[in-house]
## 1
Amino acid sequence: MPVMINLVVSDQTLLGTSHDPAHLDGHGTIPADLARPLVATALEAGAKTGLQTWLRKVYASPHGGLTAMDSRSRIVPHGLSHLIRTRDGGICRTLFCDAPIRHIDHATGVINGGQTVEEDLQGLCEGCNYAKQAPGWTATGHHPPHGRHQVTTTTPTGHTYVSTAPPLPGWADPPRHLAVLEPQDPSDLLAEYEFIDDAA
């Protein structure tokens, strides 16, 4: 029977010399001298019995606030799935395929180190998702600076293709921003405007 115990402990306490207390969910604060043996015992028992045991990293800001955590989940949460479908316009991300999205796919497979995060996910039709699993295919998801999400796919023949998420409604490609120019004559109350193209 799977059991999850949420024990929050700093890396300095777990692996270093700090004696800061830990927090055991459902119980409260426990001393460092109890937290370290709990983690060690769970990892040793998992190694001996074959039970899945892991530590989930939780990241904190310099001020102590929790900001993010890693995930071992292969199943995309419902809310994230909606985000991917919306980001990808409901259409398969494979170039020249206009089939509706049926699968939310890890661009880099979980077995190859891919994570269940927005950057590594793409919407694919069923056929393209299965084709991508064939030997020799690789894909990576990424966000270029100030750009839309992209997935770079390399085929077994060595050809590389880049799929870019469609633009949001109402946005030019690339986005243009309105800049206000100071009027030449201070008595002129009307400012002049011009569009600045990000690609320029």
## 2
Amino acid sequence: MTILVTGATGNVGRQVVEHLVKRGADVRALVRDPSKASFPAGVSVAQGDFLDVDSLRKAMSGVSTLFLLNAVVPDEFTQALVALNVARSAGIERIVYLSVIHADVYVNVPHFAGKFGVERMIEQMGFQATILRPAYFIQNDLMIEDVITGYGTYTMPIGAKGLAMIDVRDIAEIAALELLRRERSVDPLALERINLVGPQTLTGTDIAAIWSDVLARPISYGGDDTEGFERNLKQFLPAWMAYDMRLMGERFLTDGMLPEAGDVERLTALLGRPLRRYRDFASQIAGSA
């Protein structure tokens, strides 16, 4: 019984592989370039990508459970549907899919809408799946570490509604636990959606205050300018992606990313420990600055 991990060289996928190996799973990793892949001993590597159907067929042969993670790319929806169809043809019933929180609310944001479409296809195709819906990744803020520490401003458009930010390490561990739960179940389990949230819902002002505290100097919040956010992102991202991120930021301001009742308690029980806090992340950055 083999678990196939896609997106295995990324920050989440790599950690999912590591957690699965530690727990004794038989793991196969799908990668584009095996020469650049480094995994724990015992992990088998399958070369391929989502648009190479023959490589997907080979990678999914003999697989019982699939971790589906798609990068934010222009054809993300197509890639996911190809993978789902190949998985169904290969007889795979058990899936853990990494979606996004409020995918059904942020309907004008391209990568949210795409993920919601994938969720619907998973349901319509009859897969027995866990759909993980993470909120904003705490580690996204590594992109602006230099701006925070060098210019004294927190520039992410978080707004005043608040985001239930979650640590990537918690996402990966929960994903691995769900994969193992489905893999080891005698019968396929019913479809389930799980919000992945952090222990606190933080506003832009809250986060600036955390940085002010850990850096011991004033850090201001200046992130409500989504037009400026898009302009800055265009310096190192494709224009379409910068615009996608701007639209997401606008929904942060109007809707936030809010947990549902019981989400934090459920995840804490699943992990058997407290969820990691944003302050811990900021303190680590401050300590190495």
